[in-house]
Amino acid sequence: MRPIFLALPIIISLAACKVSDKAPDGAATQTAPAPQASAAPDPLAAHDSRAMPQELADSEPRPLMQAQVVLDRLGFTPGVVDGKPGLSTRNAISGFQEANSLAVTGKMDAATMAGLAQYQSIPATRVVTIPADFAAGPFVKIPKDPQDQAKLPGLGYETLDEKLAERFHTTLATLNLLNPGGMPAGSPGPAPATPAPGASPTTSATLDPAAAPVSTFHSGQQIRVPNVGGDVIATSAVGDPAWQATLAMLGVGSEQPKAARIVVSKSKGTLKAYDQSDKLIAVYTATMGSTHDPLPLGDWGITGVSHNPKFRYNPDLFWDAKEGSEKAMLPPGPNGSVGVVWIDLTKPHYGIHGTPKPETIGRAESHGCVRLTNWDVARLAQMVSTRTKVHFEA
To answer: What pLDDT does residue 27 have?
Structure first.
């Protein structure tokens, strides 16, 4: 696999994930259209200082989701925030315990709950109104064949539902659970009216209009979402407007701690980041390697970071490629094969990258590289540099 690095006026092509051929000159002279970042306040951002109106109070306490929300904000991310126990949540709890010198059990024991008690004022959910510009798309049915994907200007979201789920680090199933009948859980009143013509932007572009996905949610609708935060973006700190827009789209802030080293553990399924004083600052559940493409154990470095990378698909290098497939240059986007970020390693043809399927992190094999959710890799991309050390362990 090979992404294309875009850096100022210089176009650089680098290998990635088992790819050894060189990119043709000028292969990455264009980037896909991206939403323009705005200096206006983000209406979807967290505002914990604001009291939730009584009529918007949640229908029930959600203690595990509240803990996931806090851990996600602290950098010990539970994968998708869904209020359910699982591997990613245990990893997040273990990270918090290690960082706070607690016994590492991966369980919400008494000591851990006491450590998290200072964050009890942060609610598990909040209610937002879907902005028209966020809901505007375009939304495109992503074909499975790489040759058809290469014809698209970008590999963005298929529906507003999918975009909302990534913005709030969750799943569509969780959003539906929090909004029974299309209304925020706990809110009185009838179900929302059918959106006006043009309000639902699910079919703005598709190779097969008959197969266009349909969104559950629409512009102007009030919905309950997991109360993820840490999403403040200092526009002066992000020079690339397209990258700034990507961070806003993922609910990821521009202020991140700096990582002196990262450790990827195959047995634990985690990526841990440590600062200069060797304090644990982040833990992400990751997917790495497979029986076909094992994780290359050892010490490595970082050669560069690419935001919104293009991807060179070469079927000869994929054991599961469809017979007869041809090479293709795939456009960037959150639904691209490497998601929104490629972190290139000194180990030739390997990197750390995002994914179009966040719910599969920790549950499915990769093609040798280290795969994170798009929001986690967007955070990590701002934490690392070419000075960051990388260690892969069994």
So the answer is: 27
What is the per-residue pLDDT across 281-319, written as a single tens digit (0 to 9) for each? 999 999 986 666 789 999 999 999 999 999 887 766 554
Helix (H) or strand (E) holding 247: helix 241-250
d(CA 236, CA 224): 31
Beta strands 280-285 and 328-330, pairing class: unpaired
Low-confidence residues in the chain, pLDDT < 50 = 1-16, 18-38, 196-207, 209-210, 319, 366
Q: Are 333 and 31 in contact (CB under 8 A)?
A: no
Q: What angle in degrees, to the nearest 10, is found between the helix axes of 87-99 and 63-74?
A: 60
Q: Identify whether the C-beta of residue 305 lies closer than 8 Å to the C-beta of residue 341.
A: yes
If you ran DSSP here, which 8-state letter would residue 306 be given? Answer: E
Instruction: Write the CB contacts of 58 (distance below 8 Å, at least 6 apart in sequence).
Output: 123, 124, 125, 185, 186, 224
- Other Cβ atoms less than 10 A from the Cβ of 189: the count is 9
CA 285 vs CA 75, 151, 159, 269: distances in Å: 11, 33, 26, 6
CA–CA dist 240, 342 (Å, integer): 16
Query: What's the chain's Rg over C-alpha atoms?
Result: 21
The pTM of the full predicted model, rounded to 2 decimals, is 0.85
- Any idea which fold 62-123 has? Muramoyl-pentapeptide Carboxypeptidase; domain 1 (1.10.101)
Domains of the chain, by residue range, sit at 2-30+256-393, 62-123, 126-228
Architecture of domain 2-30+256-393: Beta Barrel (2.40)
